[in-house]
Amino acid sequence: MQDKSNSTQKNFNAYIDGFNLYKGALEDRPDLKWLDLIGLCRDLMPNIILNKVYYFAAPLKNRFPGDNANEKQATYLRVLEHSGIEIVLGHFRRDASWQRLTTKSRTQTLQPVLPSMIGISQLALNRSWDAASPDVPKANIWTHKEKGSDVNLASYLLRDIYKKACDSALVISGDSDLATAIRFSTEEGAYIKVVFPNRNRVPDALKRAAGSFETLRTQELRNNQFSETYFTKSGRQIRRPATWN
């Protein structure tokens, strides 16, 4: 989409949906997770002065014994704070719920895969499906849902636009729930650029509301990585998680 920015814009704030960015561009790319967000934002809007960066996320919960994803996230959040980014936290909600199975295939029902047991496992699955008919069998699973980040992002964006804290904004998210806040911001005269983390998820509502939009490119992520060891202003060292290589 053609960029509708102009020379009258002096500064911008950036609003980053951490969960959406992770799921859309980073989940399967550990080598890109040590991301310098300030550098990325400057690359995405190079002709306007960056004023403030907000990162909206929720502290991860342990999903299973020995899970250390929350520790790696905490390490990354410390680096972001030391780099000058304001962290705005929501929360994760964990619930157990019954969900319908999508297939009766033994090899696609569980991971690790159910053992064949000379066809007995598949036979048991088939019988479960027959017994549930016309419905399908259900499994009781944990669900983890991030709560609050989209509301926080929309609120901070509208606050800053209406208070004239910036005249432009960069929003990194593909969440269509943000469309109304972005539309209100553009109607107020602000230039809003939306960058989608996932090229396969580009909501029309966000495209219509934005002043311009684009899809995040892998090279932009690769070009903006912190050093393996981050040094704070006090000289403290924060090391990149070993599995993020």
State the low-pLDDT regions, or none: none
**What string gives the helices and strands in order?**
EHHEHEEHEHEHEHEHEE
CATH arch. level architecture of the largest domain:
3-Layer(aba) Sandwich
CATH superfamily of the largest domain: 5'-nuclease
Give the fraction of residues assigned to helices: 25-40%
CATH class of the largest domain equals Alpha Beta
DSSP summary, beta strand count: 10
Query: How many separate structural domains?
Result: 2
Strand content: 15-25%
- What class do helices, strands and sheet pairing give? alpha/beta
Pfam families: NYN
GO molecular function: RNA nuclease activity
Defining traits:
Rossmann fold; 2 domains; 245 residues; alpha/beta; 32% helix
Description of the molecule:
The protein is α/β, with parallel strands linked by helices and 245 residues long. The chain has 2 domains: 11-93 and 146-239, 5'-nuclease (Rossmann fold, 3-Layer(aba) Sandwich), CATH 3.40.50; 102-136, no CATH class. It contains 8 helices and 10 strands. Strand 6, helix 6 (179-187) and strand 7 form a beta-alpha-beta unit. Helix 5 (149-162) runs parallel beside helix 6 (179-187). The radius of gyration is 22 Å and the shape is globular. The model has no long low-confidence stretch (mean pLDDT 91).
